[in-house]
Sequence to fold (85 residues):
Amino acid sequence: MKDFKYVIQDEQGIHARPAGVLVKAANEFQSSIRIDKNGQKGDLKSIFGIMGLCIKKGDEIVVTVEGPDEDQAAEKMETLFRQQL
Fold:
């Protein structure tokens, strides 16, 4: 299992465009990829799983990746968060 923390920097938080990019990237992997905000969890492979968390600028999230390709998935997801959000 791999995980990383990130504080959202985007003024609009996680809105539809970056959520779509994250979902598309997450679905490239077999591993389970979850996002957690203050104990609320969502599936990064589902746009509703992300949008339902209402993540705003300044929120700290934890992304947890578990599965056969977790190393590559965690690396790609962390890179996307840093570039997009």
